Amino acid sequence: MDVRCINSLVLAYLGDAVYEEYIRIYLIKKGINKVNDLQKESINYVSARRQAYYLDKMFELSFLNDEEIDVVKRARNAKSHPNPKGCSVIEYKKATALEALIGYLKLEDRKIRIDEIMNLIMEELC
């Protein structure tokens, strides 16, 4: 299967789950052991506004390679019917693009690169 041919929104669907799992594990390992506290803290990482911020920072740092930039651009420009709450349409599209990148890398079995991206998000950008 050629992962590049998969719909960007489908990649984002998968990427959302992978991203969420990384964040949950990270927060639990930080020692947060109450569900309500986990939920409150996770908002700092999983909101569309924050994900858009992380993606912008990755571009500023020239952190993404050309292939990853192509995936992000394709996903950012994908036709969707967002009715975002708490963020702009642009932020929503950037968040979707970050999730699509994670989904793409997951399907390509590039765990090390996902680890690098998620470590940057969790340790450098917050």
List keywords for this structure.
6 helices, Ribonuclease iii, N-terminal Endonuclease Domain, Chain A, mainly alpha, 126 residues
Polypeptide structure, described:
With 126 residues, this protein is mainly alpha-helical. The protein has a single domain (3-124), classed as Ribonuclease III domain (Ribonuclease iii, N-terminal Endonuclease Domain, Chain A, Orthogonal Bundle), CATH 1.10.1520. Helices cover 72% and strands 0% of the residues. It has six helices and no strands. Helix 1 (8-29) crosses helix 5 (89-107), helix 2 (35-46) packs across helix 3 (48-60) and helix 4 crosses helix 5. It is globular. The termini are far apart. The model has no long low-confidence stretch (mean pLDDT 92).
Brief write-up:
The chain has a single domain (3-124), classed as Ribonuclease III domain (Ribonuclease iii, N-terminal Endonuclease Domain, Chain A, Orthogonal Bundle).
Oligomer: single chain
- Give helix and strand order, one letter per element, not per position: HHHHHH
| Terminus-to-terminus distance | 36 Å
Q: Can you identify the CATH class?
A: Mainly Alpha
Rg, nearest Å = 14 Å
Total of DSSP H or I helical runs spanning 4+ residues: 6
- Main sheet: strands, sense, barrel: none
